[in-house]
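Researcher: Here's a chain I'd like modeled. Treat it as a single chain, no partners, no ligands.
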Amino acid sequence: MTSQKAIQLKIPLRDFIPIGIDNKCILSYPVKTAEGKIYRDRYISGIWHLQQVQEAYPSYKLFIPSSVDINHLFKKLPIEKLFYAGTGTLVLRPNKDGYADKRIRDKDGNRIKLSCTSIAVHGESWRAVDRNTMQITDTGKLKRYSEIDVFKNMGWKYIRGFDENDRGVPTYFGEKPSANYNNAKAWVNPSLLISPMTRGYWTDYPRERIFHSVFDWYSEDSHWRFPLGSEAPADRSVTFYTKLVPPALPKK
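Model: Modeled as a single isolated chain. Structure tokens:
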């Protein structure tokens, strides 16, 4: 038997910034390894590993920030500190038979049937089961997202409306830019059944990163980066350290 290289994280609580919602604080940069390199992984696998960190440090009340959370963080960070990361917010689309992607299951392991394009927020309505599978924990907390169904073909549209406080997603698209949303755009691929909500995507005008949205990055890509939040009223000089060892893989 051989095992994958252990993932090591070392994070000072003082690096978490209050975002003005309840007791929520969010790390001011993507999660890094103990060597100081940004941690990258496939989307579901990365979330699964972060869930292990949550379990290892329950007193820190760690959570995976949603698109709404990151929106509030980006309003507080200076332009030069904005960063790219995937969030715990997912856009889920039904296939032609009305089912979600085959990697999405209910508590009994059955496939999920969706009545419409929906938004799932980590910790509220979904969690990772392993490195390849998601579980919808509460279908009643899935949020309707019919606005994005105006897209029939892959491409760019300007953002002309944005739900900042509930879903953290664009709500209206148009052919012309809107100064209210920093002339930001959204790139959408309607064929994807799982679209993790990204924040901070690169643009020529950094402040656009508050609203700039992409629904075209495959969850299977191995270069996803992740934010992390904490609701712990702990001493911010504390550093927590954890070593995550993935399950052993059989030799080929």
